[in-house]
Specification:
CATH superfamily of the largest domain: Nucleoside phosphorylase/phosphoribosyltransferase catalytic domain
CATH topology of the largest domain: Pyrimidine Nucleoside Phosphorylase, Chain A, domain 2
CATH architecture of the largest domain: 3-Layer(aba) Sandwich
Strand order of the largest sheet: 3-2-1-4-5-13
Radius of gyration: 22 Å
Shape: globular
Bound molecules: uracil
Strand content: 15-25%
Largest sheet: 6 strands, mixed
Helix content: 40-55%
CATH class of the largest domain: Alpha Beta
Amino acid sequence: MLMVDLIEKKRDGYTLSKEEIDFVIEGYTKGEIPDYQVSAFLMAVYLRGMNDEEATNLALSMLHSGDEMDLSMIEGVKVDKHSTGGVGDKTSLVLAPLVASFGVNFAKMSGRGLGHTGGTLDKLESIKGFNIAVSPKDFIEQVKKINIALVGQTGNLTPADKKLYALRDVTGTVSSIPLIASSIMSKKLASGADAICLDVKVGAGAFMKNIDDARHLAQLMCQIGKNCGRKMTAVLTNMDEPLGFAVGNALEVKEAIQTLNGNGPSDLTNLCLEIGAYLLVDAKKFDSLEAAKNAMLENIKNKKALNKLIDLVKAQGGDATYITDPSKFAVAKEVVEVKANQDGFVSHINALAIGHAAMLLGAGREKLEDKIDMAVGVVLNKKVGDKVKVGDTLAYVHTNGKNTEEALKEIFEAYEIASKEITSNLILDIIR
Ligand code: URA
């Protein structure tokens, strides 16, 4: 087989066989096929697309390029969730202890990632001592003991995806539905969970700008998972404003703790109940979504979910008094208000701009080696649908002095205020 023939075949719109896709992925992972040919191949896929079978084969080929987690030693159903990346998205911090409080195994491995704020792992590291570098053996032991672990990826999971993703990043080929679906699903399959819930974000602040593309991506990822024997759900959620109020590492962990105490923002709480219900039903803990949601509300009320977060923090070496006394988290030196200059109703909050402002303040990293400032970020005071008057505070900016003026301007401009009230729907569709 020659790589140039496969590039031409895809360029001309033909379907690639499993053997042909394996040839590309194996050859590239071993360094036998050069970047320039794979770049041309990726662009051909970007322009011509792939059918569902090709995308499944691509995911499987990337999955088999490295190690896979074997969670069979853990009894019972193992569940996991993945979000395609949202601003203010601290869902895992609430969802994982909530689901694990029913004895369901929540075994999650994440990469560090670049972005506006850190990923789930970075956020957890705002808790003093919290360790994300857990060996696969200890990961399994921890899940067996307390039903929950949130750790960094170890071993050599999906090396093909790592190489391909880096190449896509510099060749304008990231936003291709089959490439995104196979990339995400190869990693989710490698992490070994039996039931997976995907949170596919839709809107200006997300990879998928419209509901049709988001639905197509979600359906494709569910199909890939199903073909591999996993129980799949995808929740399509609106990213036309950040999730919850807080955007920034320690700020988001504090909001997650509030949510587990029953005082969280309604959008975040509802999303966690929705995703949690599907996972608990898939784990056969409840017969209906309604029963699962009621039981989760009860485990928030009786503090079982919060206590599970405390178990997690203790098991991974963190100082659990941060959870009972959130005043221990690092705080920024200064809090500056962003004020409204007109009356009306908030109609849209550009989530990407809010995320970018948080990054300017130091909450996220542009390069993997950048250091994150855990304390800084943005706390929204007004969300879509809220009434505002001139002089009202739209958002609070928690700053240690880095790029404050620029961030303030960006946050102010992120708010759109209209004369009529707008209602916003967080959950747009569910795919099972
Ligand atoms: N996240 C991933 O892991 N892969 C993609 O291709 C896009 C988002």
